[in-house]
Amino acid sequence: xxxxxxxxxxxxxxxxxxxxxxxxxxxxxxxxxxxxxxxxxxxxxxxxxxxxxxxxxxxxxxxxxxxxxxxxxxxxxxxxxxxxxxxxxxxxxxxxxxxxxxxxxxxxxxxxxxxxxxxxxxxxxxxxxxxxxxxxxxxxxxxxxxxxxxxxxxxxxxxxxxxxxxxxxxxxxxxxxxxxxxxxxxxxxxxxxxxxxxxxxxxxxxxxxxxxxxxxxxxxxxxxxxxxxxxxxxxxxxxxxxxxxxxxxxxxxxxxxxxxxxxxxxxxxxxxxxxxxxxxxxxxxxxxxxxxxxxxxxxxxxxxxxxxxxxxxxxxxxxxxxxxxxxxxxxxxxxxxx
Amino acid sequence: xxxxxxxxxxxxxxxxxxxxxxxxxxxxxxxxxxxxxxxxxxxxxxxxxxxxxxxxxxxxxxxxxxxxxxxxxxxxxxxxxxxxxxxxxxxxxxxxxxxxxxxxxxxxxxxxxxxxxxxxxxxxxxxxxxxxxxxxxxxxxxxxxxxxxxxxxxxxxxxxxxxxxxxxxxxxxxxxxxxxxxxxxxxxxxxxxxxxxxxxxxxxxxxxxxxxxxxxxxxxxxxxxxxxxxxxxxxxxxxxxxxxxxxxxxxxxxxxxxxxxxxxxxxxxxxxxxxxxxxxxxxxxxxxxxxxxxxxxxxxxxxxxxxxxxxxxxxxxxxxxxxxxxxxxxxxxxxxxxxxxxxxxxxx
Lengths: 338, 348
Known about the structure:
The complex is a heterodimer. By secondary structure, chain A is mostly helical. Chain A has two domains: about 1-110, no CATH class; about 110-330, MetI-like fold, CATH 1.10.3720. Helices cover about 75% and strands about 5% of the residues of chain A. Chain A is built from 14 helices and four strands. Chain A has helices at about 1-30, 35-40, 45-55, 60-75, 80-85, 110-145, 150-165, 165-180, 195-230, 235-245, 245-275, 280-285, 290-300, 305-330, and strands at about 75-80, 95, 100-105, 110. In chain A, the strands form two sheets. Chain A has a two-stranded antiparallel ribbon with strand order 1-2. In chain A, strands 3-4 form a two-stranded antiparallel ribbon. By secondary structure, chain B is α/β, with parallel strands linked by helices. Helices cover about 35% and strands about 20% of the residues of chain B. In chain B, the strands form two sheets. Chain B has an eight-stranded mixed sheet, sandwiched between helices. In chain B, α3 packs across α4 (about 125-135), α4 (about 125-135) crosses α6 and α6 (about 155-170) packs parallel to α7 (about 185-205). The longest helix of chain B has 18 residues, at about 185-205. The N and C termini of chain B lie far apart (about 45 Å). The chains are: A mainly alpha, B alpha/beta. At the A-B interface, α10 and α11 of A face α2 and α3 of B.
């Protein structure tokens, strides 16, 4: 098992290296000149060249990527050009290892920027995750148990309605009615536990969390309904019934356990994706999370931040995959290798 | 009254296309210590009718009627909770494929202990001791270690042994074995059948063995019930039926059994055609579409009227469902020479 995890982690690192290269190549494949964009509307060619040199965009892509890779391992100074460092030593920014880059747009290292953004996105993701798992799986099981009835149909139908509505609509709807019009919840504004305590943190997360959860829930209702129905048809459930086991025990010990495996896969990967930020929900509720950062930095061609985000989100997905595989071994004894 | 008495059992499944008549008016009796073999093709209602004894159709859309008396209690009249308490304790069932019949995520021991603890208020330790004892009884080597294995770590034969241990741990009066050896290879089959017989002697239980293998029936069963399209077509003591079958479908079954000991050149004659649809069974005798002897019956009776279950010409407790006036003669002169010429030679 240990060797397996090490092997998977190693493969993950190689994947991240490849992803960072891809991002550099794609960034410079864009028809828009990032230096010109950074310089502003009225810039002479000389000024643009100077900006390009300052941002290090004048050098070959390959060397820029190499600088980035060295920075991750050893740390580096910005700007990279030695002559610029000499001419204006007071403007040199040091970025300690592991350095993901220095963003001239945000005037801080990418890592520091992430440090302020990650708690926001994580809080939101975990809140939504708990809501949709409890709601989605719970309702899915209820739908499966009442298959064909009016309860089943309305649960599946309503969850599809929320799935079909775009997130910004549901988000704005909740914001307008629950927060602004009826005042049941405060207008959400991210408050960290350190600043406002657990309660404030939680209350402010309810609406954005719910917005995301309602979207994800539809999939989980349908999937857990299908998984439970599928495992209900298994021979071993007939055995459990023939033993004289009470229906409740059959459901929780035998049916749910079997339905768990595919749900864990789905949940693991969805959570990993969401940890990297919910672009629309963060915008609607004005949460400064990773999703909002991604949109903002792409809009201003902020290469260091983009590369950093790609790697961060990529590593979430890679780690989630490994965690899901390890969980499999705990759930299904057939997966355990001796 | 017998220990188990099934009377006019009807199991219907309403579907969007119509009613599937899986079992129609099935009746049989079974005493403790005796074995009944139920034989028939896939989809003839063998499993469906037996599952009804455990009330496994409850909570589905199946319509079950008739009477099933077990030890004097009508299992179709009692409520869900009462039938649940009887499952596993008074009636147990073992299934065809022991790998899929066991939960892959729990150890064999866990699943057997569970069966015991449902009906006995004992500690985990006691249940475990009893489980190991049962595993030993069914011939699992090193039961104290194998009890913690998962089903996939067992071989096919061992899994079926473990299933038998699970089914018998509460010492039930009736054991229903639904094709218990179909998924096993031949040598293991014989071991499992021997084991069932030993355990039957030990616990004096009644056994219903569902199979399509007449060899299994010949070895195990005191009585045989041949089912076709949801109905009993021939019912009686095993010896009677194997020697003097009076229903063309039973002849067909006998003709399809390969004879490995005697004349290996003898023809293996399959029953032509396919089993009828239970959704819209043919009118009259359900077997008439595949019967070679229907023209011997005057007045097109086979195509129009369902034959009653009537006493066989050979007498005894043997009944059959056939319009033929002289089935014993037809069998002796037309069927037997085809399928077992050597028997006639010996006699002649």
